[in-house]
Amino acid sequence: MHLQTLIQINDINALTKRRAEFFSENKKTTSMTKLASVLFDAGIHWPEAKYHFDAEAEQIIADRLTIPENLTPFEWEIQEAIMGPASHELLMLLWHRTDRMKHNLRKEERGKILAKLWLGALMDRDVEFLDTFRSDLTEEMDKYGELESYTEGQEVWHFTKLLEQWVVSQNVAHEKQIDDMITDTQLMGDISQAKYFTLIFARTRQGHPHHNYELKNPDPMPIVVRKTAGGVILGRRRYLGLHLDDIVLGRNKSTLRRFEKAESQLSFGSLVQLCEQMAVLVPTLLGSMNVTLQGQNRNITLWLSWSDMVSLKARGKNVADAQDVINQTMEFMKDVPANIRQGQLFVLQRTAMEVGFNHFDESEQRTVAPKLLRQLLKSNHWGLFEYLILRYICPLLGFDDLSLLFQHVQRILSKQPGFFGRSYAYGAMSLAFVCAVKTKSSDEVVNFVQSLRWINDIDEADGSRWMAMGSREIALDLIQKTETSKNVVKQFIVRCQNTGHHKVLADLKDYWRELVPNDYFKI
Fold first, then answer.
1. Distance of CA 507 to the CA centre of its chain
2. Contacts with 346 (C-beta within 8 Å, 6 or more apart), sequence order
3. φ, ψ of residue 291 in degrees (nearest 5)
């Protein structure tokens, strides 16, 4: 449904239009449409201080939002909309459900869910909730590290801490810290994020605890491993409380029942239509197949292999382990087209080299790079495969190719708002700026760096974008060496500190440590 940003900035016109479109396509009343109605109402009204769910709406949420491992975009959107209007009892219920799934949620997912629930309690100034779970949240942060280290959650977590500080002790100094953070967030281009924070603070100012003592906690649904697309659909249908009669697909019930039992197949068009009615994306559906209770997928994918490679060094592994990851991936991908396998091998080898395993042949990679560049430039719709190639190809390209590539990247990013692979594009920019400065070709470097000014104008709350912006300013400072360029870097550092982007500053220090003095980042 892609409503999360619209909910955060409270775009009432867009949400009203999307609501009308949804119900024009879904005229039959089902458990799914009831849940969607609650979601749209919450998305439109959540900033209103006196708006809370009635008992019926809360029970619909409690009946459906049962197992947090169903983290499709739809579930994230529900969580985004409900945290403000939710009662103390619903927040408690969802907190305990999330805690129940601690063994099966990645730390980033668990942390972000808990932070949203915490924000919900803060907006109602629900001190009872805060006092009950503060030690749990502290333990969570101590166990996994501060939420500010999560690339896409740095600003939200820092804002949450400032808001709690204000709720506990309302004074001018604490209010100024919040106002300064919102201002700096907006000045760095995160317009939507700044509006989101402004709306939250406005509701919190008038907040008060809200209770729903009638709320019932349904029995948890059993977690079942699904091995087929039909099996995932069956679990999804039961999760949403839908019957076969509720599905409008132009297929009889026996056909759908056989599909769910993996006794028949549906056309891709029918599968897409079915996914739309289940509020799940096709890639999410396919990615949910063969997922175990520990959240590990049995299928090898480039992203899973890349993630494994990135963490090898920290897990005390050696170059032989890196080669094993590559060999297993290439064996699993043996039937994919040769040009795709070539790109996958390139990504994994470059990743291994970046984390410290340097025995791979760079001359071969330099031979492959022009071919991969042509692939990227020809493609007008990128997936994770293309973004990962971009992330690692930049050090092997000259300025002309880099300029051409990032012009194309700008077009791609404009077409794919919200795609999670975008962070790799920003990571590639940061790396390109470092490589550019190392060439010491000042005129070309300045022209190249100036040509990427457009990253400052992207309205996206992502720490990797902040890092790219910071790298750009550092590159200009190291080349131009003026008082103005130095002050711009200092201003950027202060804004990072004010907005909780400590991970960005730490990564910038690591990226630039060979090129700047030890005290470069001190203010």
1. 19
2. 365, 368, 369, 372, 389, 392, 393
3. -85, 130
Amino acid 422: pLDDT:
92
Tell me if the pTM is above 0.70.
yes
Note whether 341 and 326 are within 8 A (CB): no
| Amino acid at position 491, single letter | Q
Question: Residue 300: is its pLDDT beyond 70?
Answer: yes
What is the percentage of the chain residues whose pLDDT exceeds 70? 91
Each domain of the chain, given as residue ranges in start order, spans 4-205, 229-287, 392-523
Q: In angstroms, rounded to a whole number, what is the distance separating the alpha carbons of residues 126 and 109?
A: 23
pLDDT single digits (tens) 359-411: 788 899 999 999 999 999 999 989 989 999 999 999 999 999 999 999 999 99
Q: Which listed CATH number (1.10.3470, 1.10.8, 1.10.287, 1.25.40) goes with 4-205?
A: 1.25.40
> CA of 246: how far to CAs of 152, 234, 272, 376, in Å?
37, 13, 16, 43
Q: CB-based contacts of 283: which residues, under 8 Å, 6+ apart?
A: none
The overall average pLDDT reported for the chain is 88
User: What residues contact 394, with CB distance under 8 A and at least 6 apart?
Assistant: 402, 405, 428, 431, 432, 435
Asked whether the predicted pLDDT for residue 191 surpasses 50, the reply is yes
Task: List 291's β-bridge partners, or say none.
Answer: 297
Classify 215 as helix, strand or coil.
coil
Query: Mean pLDDT throughout 111-128?
Result: 91
**Hey, which CATH number is domain 229-287, 1.20.1440.130, 1.10.260.40, 3.40.50.1580, 3.20.20.140?**
1.10.260.40
Distance CA 95, CA 114 (A): 7
Return the pLDDT at 7. 93
pLDDT of residue 286: 67
Q: Is 56 exposed, middle or buried (0-12, 13-18, 19+ CB in 10 A)?
A: exposed
Rounded Cα distance between 287 and 35, Å, is: 24
Contact 512, 474 (CB under 8 A): yes
pLDDT at residue 432 in the model: 95
